[in-house]
């Protein structure tokens, strides 16, 4: 989980978790992992959404590794996800969580990509949406379950397929 230190006249020294904040206009100094990012915004509401580290996404998808990753992908599954996160089509959307709550990344998109992986035999045949939602979220009825049954956009599908082969 990334942590930010905010310094401005509105929120001197405040700590914000999950890499997201909303404050009034002005200059905002955001410190993420020792690096300063300055956001200058004169609008009534300034928003800062730095990208979370890839670690949280990898931790999430690796929950499936011992249970549903096929034997021939066991040694390559983490590598595959690291490559997927570098794809331009994925990187443009993976950090936009939209209205999803309690997350720092787009779990719906991750669910779509996992569905594609199941279709392409990276994941075992027993990896259905309900079972994967249970392993990923601890709840078979988690909201990501629906996305575990849907394909990603065609651009993302093609990009991921190029890695899977």
Structure description:
This protein is 40% helix and 21% strand. With 165 residues, the protein is α+β, with helices and mostly antiparallel strands. The protein has 2 domains: 3-48, no CATH class; 54-164. It is globular and about 35 Å long. The model is unreliable at 1-18, 20-25 and 40-46 (pLDDT under 50).
Rg measurement, Å? 18 Å
Shape, per Cα inertia axes:
globular
Question: Total helix count?
Answer: 8
Could you describe the largest sheet, including whether it forms a barrel?
4 strands, antiparallel
Give the number of domains: 2
Strand order in space, largest sheet: 2-1-3-4
Helix/strand/pairing class, anyone?
alpha+beta
In percent terms, what proportion of residues is strand?
Answer: 15-25%
Tell me briefly what this model is.
The chain is of the alpha+beta class. The protein contains 8 helices and 4 strands.
Primary descriptors:
2 domains; 8 helices; 165 residues; 40% helix; globular; 4 strands; four-stranded antiparallel sheet; single chain; alpha+beta
Topology diagram in text:
Elements (H helix, E strand, L loop, with lengths): L2 E5 L6 E4 L3 E12 L2 E14 L5 H8 L3 H4 L8 H10 L1 H7 L12 H13 L9 H9 L6 H4 L6 H11 L1
Antiparallel strand pairs: 1-2, 1-3, 3-4
